[in-house]
Amino acid sequence: MGWYDVREGNPFKQRLAGGDLVVGVFVRMPSLEVVEISGHAGFDCVIIAGEHAPLGWERIAALVAAAENTGITPLIRVSNGTRDLISKGLDTGAHGIMVPQIESPQAAAEAVAAATYGPGGTRGTAGNSRTGYGTVMSYAEYVGPANEAKVVIIQIESVAGVERVEEIAAVQGIDCLFIGLTDLSVNLGVPGEYTHPEVEKCVTRTIAAAADHGIAVGVPAVDPEMAKSYIDKGARFVGTGDTGLFGSSVRSFVEGTRKSNG
């Protein structure tokens, strides 16, 4: 818990590389309490949903701090792979990024570069929270460990991405391929049919490509049964959503309470 010193490495990144199962929650609700409860509940990471949620950068930075205060790894899903969004996302103090809708090795490489300080990358430099805003360490001390500690997760969410997934998985610096099942199913013309043969074919191909290059695969899951089905296929990162968890819990409480009155 507390301030994250990149010089000590990134345990979450190490767990991904080591093949451990990690469980995360996508946070769309702009609530510090949701992040803190997720940490206390035992999630390994929160993925702050910068793509789909109405979150401003000030709130994102606060959610990152709340995650660190409860010992849960903060990641940010940016809305696209541009340098400015990735740099700003990491400058909030997040330990890594998730980049959606990657469909080529070039796009994947650009995302990795945007998360990497030079000379090997294009990330801009500024005195951020990870250096203690310049009070804890110099850039000479910081840049190398920061490059090593960052987590880069690439989302495969379309037929075009799957068709080049072997090339994408070969890009150096990627820690995980995360399959966007909903977008993928929509792209295939079978929205929400996660067990459709065409969706499953894409999942199998992505898992195989990741295994061939020694990187993890992540999937979303709405319940433990769905999670198990993908874990059995080789996924090592399972993510669920805060709104889905809240919705199902609320519905269960209301329905159960009304039944008790019968």
Brief descriptors of the model:
262 residues; alpha/beta; TIM Barrel; eight-stranded parallel beta barrel; 12 helices; 46% helix
Task: Provide structural commentary.
- The structure is a single chain.
- This protein has 262 residues and is α/β, with parallel strands linked by helices.
- It has a single domain (6-260), classed as TIM Barrel (Alpha-Beta Barrel), CATH 3.20.20.
- The chain has 12 helices and 8 strands.
- The protein has helices at 11-18, 32-41, 57-69, 83-91, 105-114, 139-149, 159-163, 165-169, 181-187, 197-212, 224-231, 242-260, and strands spanning 22-27, 45-49, 73-77, 96-99, 151-156, 176-179, 216-220, 237-241.
- An 8-stranded parallel barrel has the order 1-2-3-4-5-6-7-8, surrounded by 8 helices.
- Helix 3 links the parallel strand 2 and strand 3 (73-77).
- The radius of gyration is 18 Å and the shape is globular.
- The N and C termini lie far apart (47 Å).
- The relative contact order is 0.13.
Overall average residue pLDDT: 95
Can you tell me the CATH topology? TIM Barrel
Strand line-up of the largest beta sheet: 1-2-3-4-5-6-7-8
Low-confidence stretches: none
What's the N-to-C terminus distance?
Answer: 47 Å
Structural class: alpha/beta
CATH superfamily: Phosphoenolpyruvate-binding domains
Number of strands: 8
Q: In CATH terms, what is the architecture?
A: Alpha-Beta Barrel
The number of helical runs is: 12
When the domains are counted, the total is 1
Tell me the overall shape.
globular
Report a brief summary of the structure:
This protein has 262 residues and is α/β, with parallel strands linked by helices. The protein has helices spanning 11-18, 32-41, 57-69, 83-91, 105-114, 139-149, 159-163, 165-169, 181-187, 197-212, 224-231, 242-260; strands at residues 22-27, 45-49, 73-77, 96-99, 151-156, 176-179, 216-220, 237-241. The longest helix is centred in the last third of the chain and has 19 residues, at 242-260.
